[in-house]
Amino acid sequence: MALRQAGSMLVVFFWSVAVVMGQDGWSVTYTPQSICALRGSTVDLTCSYTYPSGTVTTTLWFTKMETGVETEDIGQDPENAGHVEYHGDKKNGHTLTITDLREKDSATYKFRLLTDQEGGTYTGSPGVTLSVTGLQVKVTGGHQDKTLTCITTCTLTDNPTYIWYKNGQHLDESTSPQYKSSVSSNYIDGYSCAVKGQEDLHSPAVCVQGQSCNRVTYTKRRICVLKGSTVAISCTYVGYNRVKSSLWFSPKQSASWTNKLTPEDLTRDPGYAGRVEYAGRESETYEGPSSLRITDLREEDSAEYRFAFKTQNFEWGHSFPGTTLSVTGNTTLYDTTVNHIELQEKINEPSC
C-alpha cells in the first residue's frame, strides 16, 4: 500500500508540473480533477489559469468540442438557465457552480479563455470529470442475517458520513457505507440511507423482507416558488397495516415535538389558517398518495415539510427528511437572446 501511494504521489507531481508550465505561458489547473456528487445537490468546479499577455476578454466552460464547430458555452444553453452560474475572481481563478444536479450533468468539463492578442485562445486539459449519482440501499444475506449497504455508482467525494433510517426514524451515523448494527427481519421494517449535510437527498426506503413494509416516498425533494403563489407538496405512502390517520407537519413550526410525541398538524397551525388543505388522504387504506396544498405563500413558509401516518400499532418516524420548500419574492432575469415572449416567461421564474 505504501508503494502504491508513493507512486501515485509521484505521478501527480509530474502532472502538476506539466500543467503549471503550460504552453508558452498558458495554463489551466483544475482542483480537483474528478468529483462524484449526489443527484439534486450543488457542486463547484474550480480552476485557476495563467496567460502570457494581453487582457482576458472571454471565459467559458464547455463539455463538447468538435473540429470546425464553435465551442458551446454551457452558460448560454437555455437548458441550463438558472442551473449553472459562473464566478470569477481577481486572482485568475474561475468557478462553475451547478445546482440541482442531474444524471445528464455527468461529463468532463473544460475551461477556455480568450484574450485580445493574436492567437489568444487556450483550452485547459484534462478538465474536471463530474459523475452524478443517487443513493440506493442494497440488501444482502440470508433470511435471518441481513446486511445493508448504502451504494452509489461512483465513490462520493470528501469521505461522507452516512445516516441510516428505519421506518422513518433516525438510527445511526457512520463513515462506513455499511450499516453495522443487526438488521430486523420484521416484514414491516423499511430502511433508508442519506449523507450527512444532504439529508434531503436520501435513498428510497427498501423492505428488508417482502415488498409491503412501511415507507414514504416524496415526489420532489426541493421546490422553489414565488411569494403569493400556490404549491402542492406530494408523496406516496405504504402501510404494512391499515392507515388510521395521517398528517403533514413542518419541524420548523413544530419546534417543541420530539420523536416520542406527535408533531403539530399544519391544518391546526394558526400561521397557516385558511391556507392549507390536504388531498388524497383516506383512512383505512394500506397505501395511497397524499398532497399538501398551501395557498398565498409567504417567504416565512420556506421550510421542510414532512408526512406522517399511523396504523393501529405503528407510527411512521418523524425524523425521515421530507420536501424542502423555498419561497422567494425575487425573479431571475436571464441575459440571453431569446425573443420577447420567451423572455417574459423567464422573467416570472423564481430566483432560488
Q: What is the first-to-last residue Cα distance?
A: 46 Å
Number of helices: 2
How much helical structure, as a percent, in the residues?
Answer: under 10%
- In total, the number of strands is 23
CATH superfamily of the largest domain: Immunoglobulins
Short recap of the structure:
The protein has about 350 residues and is mainly β. It is about 10% helix and about 40% strand. A hairpin with a 4-residue loop joins strand 10 (about 135-140) and strand 11 (about 145-150).
Structural description of this entry:
Residues 1-21 and 333-346 have low confidence and may be disordered. The chain has three domains: 25-131, Immunoglobulin-like (Sandwich), CATH 2.60.40; 134-211, Immunoglobulin-like; 214-352, Immunoglobulin-like (Sandwich). The strands form six sheets. Strands 2, 4, 7, 8 and 9 form a five-stranded mixed β-sheet that branches. It has a four-stranded antiparallel β-sheet with strand order 1-3-6-5. 8% of the residues lie in helices and 40% in strands. The chain is built from two helices and 23 strands. The protein is flat, with a radius of gyration of 25 Å. A hairpin with a 2-residue loop joins strand 12 (162-166) and strand 13 (169-174). The protein has helices at residues 2-21, 340-347; strands spanning 27-31, 34-38, 43-50, 56-62, 84-88, 93-98, 107-115, 121-123, 128-133, 136-141, 146-151, 162-166, 169-174, 190-195, 206-207, 215-218, 222-226, 231-243, 245-249, 276-279, 285-294, 303-310, 323-328. This is Ig-like domain-containing protein. Keywords: Signal. Residues 1-22 form the signal peptide. Residues 126-209, 214-328 form the Ig-like domain.
